[in-house]
Amino acid sequence: MKSISFDIAAVILLVILLGSYFLRKMTKGISNSIVIGITVIYIIAACFDIAAVTLDNRHSTDLSALYTAHAGYLFTHFLGAPLHLAYVISLTDTWHLLKKKKWMQVLLILPFPVMIGLFVMNAGNYLIFSVENGYTRGPWFGFLYMATLYYVAFDIAYLVKYRKLFTFVKMLSISTVIPLSVAAMVVQMLHPKLIIEMFCGAVGLMIVSTGIQRAEDYIDTFTQCMKMSAYVYDMKRTLSIGKHVRTIMINLGNFQSVQAMVGFDAGMEVLRKVADKLQDIDKKMRGHADLYYLDNGRFRIVFTESHFQKVEGIAEAMNAALKEPIDMNGQSVNLMPFVVLAYYPDEFKTFRALMAFGADFHQRNPYTGKVLLASDIFDKTQLNIRNNIDRIIDRALANNSFEVYYQPIYAVSEGRFISAEALLRLNDPEYGFISPEALIVAAEQNGAIHKIGEYVFEKVCQFIASEEFRNLQLDYIEVNLSMAQIMHSDLPEKYLAIMDKYHVTSEQINLEITETAAAYEQEVMMQNLDRLTQAGINFSLDDYGTGYSNMSRMIHLPLKIIKLDKSFVSEENTKKVWIFLKNTVKMLKDMDMEIVVEGVETQEMLDAFSDLQCDFIQGYFFSKPIPQKEFVAFISRANKA
Ligand code: C2E
Ligand code: MG
Ligand code: MG
Fold it and tell me: Does residue 408's CB lie within 6 angstroms of at least one atom of ligand 1?
């Protein structure tokens, strides 16, 4: 007697699973459809199996019923392996690659005609099984298992080839299915009375559904769109498998103020309504897009190649729909949707470039109310630089092509140049001059900032140690520190070691930190400042007046010099601005700090700020930042005069 208990358990488990897919809204997308397909096929297979075993146990003589039950079970059961492979392929999202490889398609389909042939011929010559004298296996029965193993081999090949696309847990969940079903097959072969294959299949599906198809990982509960994490994962995968997508990027420019106006809950309701509108339009216009909600009113709608021709129309429709006011309990809310079409990876070669662009295009461009192309609002060379910044920085470090320029700083009371600011320069062989701001931001993101910072510092120390420098009779050189550097605990030891190497004293160095960095309450930063101050190094606060300074924090930082930002140096300054400047200078002096004015370009401004009793002046009026050689010549000449 064979027992059907495992099969019944399998059916119960599978029906519960199937219900859970719908309750958890895991019905969209190919991989979800395939999982649903497998579950349904397994339920059918288990039911055929229950029928077949029951008939066998009763020694039924109804040959056609027996035949149908066994054939139905064997065939649906065989479908499990190719469906599992289809699932793995859809997880890697490589269907488009398969489309191009005819021979692969042939290989994958091959067992099907053989199988169908065998089932057809089985009716006459019992190649697979017969039911004449009870159920017995035929000489070709093993082929069923061979076909299964054939697909398992492809499964393994895919998982190995695309292993980088899976996290450890995902890899584990998807690959345990393979040993599980192979083990079940072996047990079944050895003990034909123990009917456990379907039960093992159900358990395998459950592992997949809890380990991989986890809605909570992907779905944003407010908007029902996919989450930022899914976007990051999908976009990185798109790049790594060489797929091309078009994306409608929607940033609601005024979302923050809308939320401040209507409150948090209603703000989320607005987002939900926006998501509904987008979803509706995509459905109506059959874009079959993936919708993501990132954060702060940013939506992404991603299209695959077969729907490219609809993207522009859909973008227009979405833009029009979002411009209509949304009714929130009688209050009408107007949104400011910035809608941009971007091609990826055609326009954005790296995921980082895509994210950097998407973060703030609505802040960098005026609101036009029109659908824009990413390439239109993004300067091509800037885009290329952003796309290739890693390579540009690596190349510059390898070829030693970073340069340090110096801009003289003039002491008003002494009537001579007493110092200079070291500024980074890069002339890239491919892109030409690249602004230090762009470089520093990119270098902070990819971590190269530490190497670049040390490079600049070493060049400066080398210069200070030189004979030429001694003759110039300058007091010190100012060197910029970026945010990322100040937050790094290695900074003091590295910098002090470099100074040691060139016998540079602490009075010869002044480090500039920016106002934004100074506003951070951060332990490592404070330790770094303390350590360097103890070593005798002075600090300047750069770009004073541009960031949001936290006055109480600033007062407690060990600052010797404040650099007034160049935005204060203007012929158009109103009377109020001058009053503000006069009092700022007085306040800083009372606090025993020295003042540098940056960006002085004219005699008028020089006079104005000298009258205010500012200590030092830096700007194009005296000199632009210039290469070391020119700088030496410039100062020598000026000192003589
Ligand atoms: P910053 O430290 O405020 O440097 C002053 C900037 O003002 C320099 O721009 C300088 O060329 C410019 N400038 C000086 N005088 C005038 C003037 O009269 N008129 C005008 N319009 N501009 C003037 P630059 O060299 O493009 O550097 C931009 C920023 O890049 C710097 O601002 C600094 O924040 C950063 N940076 C430059 N070199 C380095 C470096 O080695 N390390 C770090 N971390 N940042 C650097
Ligand atoms: Mg500076
Ligand atoms: Mg500055």
Answer: no
Same domain, 238 and 357: yes
Q: Is 623 touching ligand 1 by the criterion CB < 6 Å?
A: no
For the cut 70, the answer to whether the pLDDT of residue 548 exceeds it is no
Is residue 638 within 8 A of residue 417, CB to CB? The reply is yes
Dist. CA 276 → ligand 1 center (Å): 47
Which DSSP string do the residues of 471-510 spell out, in sequence order? HHT--EEEEE--HHHHT-TTHHHHHHHHHHHTT--GGGEE
Residue nearest atom 16 in ligand 1 by C-alpha distance: 599
Q: How far is the CA of 626 from the centre of ligand 1 (A)?
A: 12
Number of domains into which the chain is organized: 3
| Beta carbon of 599 within 6 Å of any ligand 1 atom | yes
How do residues 278-309 score in pLDDT, each as one tens digit? 999 999 999 999 999 999 999 999 999 999 99
Nearest CA to ligand 1 atom 45: 480
CATH number reported for the structural domain that contains residue 408 in this entry: 3.20.20.450
Is this prediction's pTM over 0.90?
Answer: no
pLDDT tens digits along 21-42: 888 777 767 788 899 999 999 9
Per-residue model confidence (pLDDT) at position 36: 93
Is the distance from CB of 184 to CB of 196 less than 8 angstroms?
A: yes
